[in-house]
TrEMBL record:
<dbReference type="InterPro" id="IPR055011">
    <property type="entry name" value="Tag1_C"/>
</dbReference>
<keyword id="KW-0812">Transmembrane</keyword>
<dbReference type="Pfam" id="PF26174">
    <property type="entry name" value="LEA-2_1"/>
</dbReference>
<dbReference type="InterPro" id="IPR059065">
    <property type="entry name" value="Ig_Tag1-like_4th"/>
</dbReference>
<feature type="domain" description="Tag1 C-terminal">
    <location>
        <begin position="455"/>
        <end position="569"/>
    </location>
</feature>
<keyword id="KW-0472">Membrane</keyword>
<feature type="domain" description="Tag1-like fifth Ig-like">
    <location>
        <begin position="730"/>
        <end position="841"/>
    </location>
</feature>
<dbReference type="Pfam" id="PF22786">
    <property type="entry name" value="Tag1_C"/>
</dbReference>
<keyword id="KW-1133">Transmembrane helix</keyword>
<protein>
    <recommendedName>
        <fullName>Pre-rRNA processing protein</fullName>
    </recommendedName>
</protein>
<feature type="domain" description="Tag1-like fourth Ig-like">
    <location>
        <begin position="591"/>
        <end position="703"/>
    </location>
</feature>
<dbReference type="GO" id="GO:0000329">
    <property type="term" value="C:fungal-type vacuole membrane"/>
</dbReference>
<dbReference type="Pfam" id="PF26150">
    <property type="entry name" value="LEA-2_4"/>
</dbReference>
<dbReference type="Pfam" id="PF26153">
    <property type="entry name" value="LEA-2L_5"/>
</dbReference>
<dbReference type="InterPro" id="IPR059066">
    <property type="entry name" value="Ig_Tag1-like_5th"/>
</dbReference>
<feature type="transmembrane region" description="Helical">
    <location>
        <begin position="69"/>
        <end position="91"/>
    </location>
</feature>
<dbReference type="InterPro" id="IPR046368">
    <property type="entry name" value="Tag1"/>
</dbReference>
Length: 853
């Protein structure tokens, strides 16, 4: 620190030599025979070289000569006070201006050796010199050089120097008790000074106010005024007691900031010594740019964090302690801090008003996102009882904000898997804006979470929740909403090999809504997983909440940011040897048809469905509606209500279908429907296609569009009726006409008919049929009176037959009298079920006919 006014000349930037280098120089004294002018010029030349050597010495030691303010209570007091003493020879006003501008003092060492009951005992070393080149006016410079050459030396008696702050009401911030000192005041001469000084703080309240303003960033500049009453003499001449005053201004880079530091190691553990709570061991490297030597006693501080609002009172979290620390000039410090937290206060973990976060959530969230977080250190307690009371009073309640760099936790999720998965399709009664209007998932989720190596304390997860965005190939396709707490448990896995420690969390997820936001991306995932059996990699960005048990107790942490790549294995068996997809493995079958209702153009049917679920997942379906198609033409819709699907075989699931080709597809649909029914009753292999549409799942048109890309074709249910004993031909009873009895004399026929329905009676309203033997017509039946076909096996009324008397078919019938033969038949049939009517054709092959008289 420099106590004189700044000079614009280059010489003002020189510094004095170190004490060691200066002691090695020869004496600068001269004899009286040496010519005065020559002596002076030679001395100035030699001293200039000395000054340059001193500057190089200090530069080699890495000391920046910029003005610093290392300590208001120490270095500032000493430097100002010593300068006042050096200027004390200004008993005459004639050389006052010269002394103020030419005097230069450079401190080289400051050590605070011990604390006393009233202050600090300090040792200060530095170099004092008069530099005439810094004086602006030549007249003042010449007068000063002559006066100081005559006076040669000035000596001061012991004195007190006081330092005030004018902007704080001339608050006294400290007093330095300085012993007597003698200096050479001739131009260019350097005097090394070594002093033991007693420092006493002034008003503790004023010093604390200054410290708070500095910590809060309100000190743009600092005005300091020093005053001392110094008894002086020069040689045998006493100059009396002089009142010395000096004012200085510190601003910009002259006002120090908190030293730079780096946290090099953190270890979080259980508290030791049988204490409850958690402990922390932290190693900190602190940059030291000051020429200060001091032994700092052991100290304990409070650790605090911010509340919900910046204006809220800080929340006490725990305490931290450091051991006794020895500080050496310009040597960086390695400090070990030991902390302890017994339990977390309620205000730290309680949600803030109008927010879903607590102060703890905000602190950890910022840290884990890699953002700077801030804790606060409040001074101080001194474990050593010999520490004087003034030190405790001075530092009492001074709170220092300590920012620390956050840590980007990276990929915390190492592995992710699902088991016992159950899907819930949306409830038809749900409000479209509620979570129940989305598909929901219940499952057991197993998550392997990587832990930071510094976390070495027991940690048990009891509940978990999350709000997660899910991405595939960097495209967001959905949100998984776990806003309700879900049960969970955890197991710590210690580090092994190159893997660090991890926490295996198992959570029971109950009805978590899954909102599909991009159906195209989700469709791609379904294809990769269902059709091709591939493992997909999903990117998850989530705000996670966990309720944990720790040595500090049980508490919840909300909205912790988490990102990870989650591999999801195929949810089914994928492609098999036959190359088919999962949908081809459904083996969908339908039976037990019954008619529930009819209209002139429609039938409402009920059937029992059997199929195989090839996936490992189950599902609850409150409602689903699927189009029924034939030849890509919509014939009607099938609906299922409140069914539960399990992995593997699912049997007797009730499905309701409305068959209405005309309403859905007009005349084309009516014609295709009639053709399908004709083939069906004739025993042909018929099938229809089940395909989803936008209205398949309530409130989820995008999911319906996705499922529509996977139509499933299934065979129509077979005509079934009770088999007769000894009937081993599986196809024999699969025809609408099971057999017939032909009466030649009465020209009538009776048919045994198999209805496809179990509970519904259908009616034949019109019949125009021809019987064939091989390809030869045998007879014709035209019957316009309606007759009933009840469920199961029944017989028709006697139907009149018009024989083809001159045909080979009729001859074959006569030859089979008393026996039987196989006949073919083709008929146009009018059918009625309730209000519904339809015209179909029927073609029968190999109908067993008994021939009777």
């Amino acid at each position: 620190m420099q106590s004189t006014a700044p000079s614009s000349r280059p010489g003002s930037q020189r510094s004095g030599r170190s004490s060691r280098s200066r002691r090695s120089q020869p004496s600068s004294r001269t004899t009286e025979e040496t010519p005065l002018i020559a002596r002076e010029e030679r001395r100035e030349h030699e001293e200039t070289d000395d000054v340059d050597s001193q500057a190089e010495s200090l530069k080699g030691r890495g000391w920046s000569l910029r003005k610093r303010w290392p300590s208001i209570l120490a270095l500032l007091l000493l430097c100002c006070s010593v300068v006042f003493v050096m200027l004390g020879f200004l008993a005459t006003e004639g050389i006052e201006e010269y002394a103020v501008q030419a005097a230069d003092f450079k401190p080289t060492k400051l050590s605070l050796s011990s604390l006393t009951k009233t202050g600090v005992k300090a040792h200060v070393e530095g170099d004092f010199r008069m530099d005439a080149s810094k004086v602006k006016k030549s007249s003042v410079r010449n007068l000063g050089r002559f006066g100081t050459w005559v006076a040669r030396e000035v000596e001061s008696a012991p004195a007190d120097a006081e330092v005030y702050l004018p902007e704080y009401g001339d608050a006294l911030i400290g007093t330095a008790r300085i012993p007597g000192v003698k200096v050479n005041i001739r131009n260019g001469h350097t005097t090394h000074i070594s002093l033991d000084v007693d420092l006493e703080p002034g008003s503790l309240n004023d010093i604390r106010n200054i410290a708070h303003d500095w910590l809060d960033g309100r000190l743009a500049e600092v005005h300091v005024k020093g005053k001392a009453y110094v008894p002086l003499k020069s040689g045998l001449f006493r100059l009396g007691t002089q009142t010395l005053e000096q004012a200085m201004v510190f601003k910009g880079a002259d006002i120090p900031t908190l030293p730079a530091y780096n946290i090099t190691r953190v270890n979080l553990r259980e508290a030791r010594g049988g204490n409850k709570g958690m402990g922390a061991d932290v190693s900190v490297s602190v940059k030291n740019d000051f020429p200060v030597e001091i032994t700092v006693p052991a100290v304990a501080v409070d650790m605090l964090v911010g509340g919900c609002q910046p204006s809220d009172q800080l929340i006490l979290v725990g305490t931290a302690e450091t051991a006794e620390l020895h500080v050496e000039p310009f040597i960086d410090l390695n400090v070990t801090v030991t902390g302890r937290v017994e339990e977390l206060p309620d205000e730290l973990t309680t949600q803030c008003p109008n927010s879903a976060k607590s102060p703890l959530d905000s602190l950890l969230g910022s840290y884990m996102q890699g953002e700077d977080a801030t804790v606060y250190i409040r001074c101080c307690e001194f474990p050593d009882p010999s520490t004087p009371g003034w030190a405790k009073d001075l530092l009492q309640d001074i709170t220092v904000p300590i920012p620390f760099a956050g840590r980007d936790m990276g990929n915390l999720i190492r592995n992710f898997s699902l088991s016992d998965v159950h899907f819930f399709l949306p409830d038809t009664t749900a409000d479209p804006e509620t979570p129940e209007s989305n598909p929901q998932i219940s499952a057991v989720i197993l998550v392997d979470i990587g832990l930071p190596e510094e976390m070495n304390f027991p940690l048990a997860v009891k509940h978990i929740k999350a709000d997660a965005d899910v991405y595939y190939h960097k495209k967001k396709f959905g949100k998984l909403n776990l806003r309700k707490w879900q049960k969970a448990n955890s197991t710590r896995i210690e580090a092994h090999g190159h893997e660090g420690p991890s926490l295996l969390v198992q959570a029971d997820i109950k009805k978590a809504p899954l909102e599909i936001t991009d159906g195209a991306v989700f469709s791609k995932i379904v294809q990769d997983m269902f059709l091709w059996g591939e493992t997909v990699l999903l990117d998850v960005k989530a705000a996670v909440g966990v309720e944990v048990n720790t040595p500090m107790g049980q508490f919840a942490i909300r909205d912790i940011p988490a990102e990870g790549v989650v591999p999801v294995k195929p949810i089914g068996h994928g492609t098999g040897d036959d190359g088919g997809s999962i949908f081809s493995k459904l083996n969908l079958r339908m039976g037990n048809l019954s008619i529930l209702n009819t209209s002139p153009s429609s039938l409402t049917l009920q059937a029992h469905v059997n199929f195989t679920n090839p996936t490992n997942y189950s599902a609850t379906v409150p409602y689903v509606n699927i189009n029924v198609l034939v030849n890509s033409t919509v014939m009607g819709q099938a609906t299922a209500d409140h069914i539960v699907v399990h992995p593997g075989n699912n049997t007797n699931l009730v499905v309701t279908a409305i068959w209405d080709p005309f309403t859905n597809s007009g005349q084309r649909g009516k014609a295709i429907g009639s053709e399908l029914l004709s083939q069906y009753v004739s025993g042909f292999n018929t099938s229809f296609t089940m395909q989803a549409h936008e209205g398949t799942i309530p409130h989820q048109p995008s999911l319906g569009r996705l499922l529509s890309k996977f139509p499933v074709t299934i065979p129509a249910p077979r005509l079934s009726g009770p088999k007769q004993p000894g009937d081993n031909d599986p196809d024999e009873k699969d025809h609408f006409i099971q057999d017939a009895t032909m009466h030649i004399l009465s020209s009538t026929a009776i048919f045994t008919l198999a209805s496809p329905f179990r509970t519904t009676t259908m009616y034949v309203t019109h019949l125009n049929a021809t019987a064939y033997y091989e390809t030869h017509p045998a007879g014709k039946i035209i019957y316009d009176l309606p007759f009933a076909i009840p469920p199961g096996i029944s017989t028709s009324p006697r139907l009149p037959v018009d024989w083809s008397l001159d045909s080979l078919g009729y001859e074959a019938i006569k030859k089979a009298l008393g026996g039987s033969l196989k006949l073919n038949a083709f008929a146009e049939v009018g059918v009625r079920i309730g209000s519904w009517r339809e015209q179909i054709w029927y073609k029968g092959q190999g109908i067993g006919a008994k021939i009777r008289l």
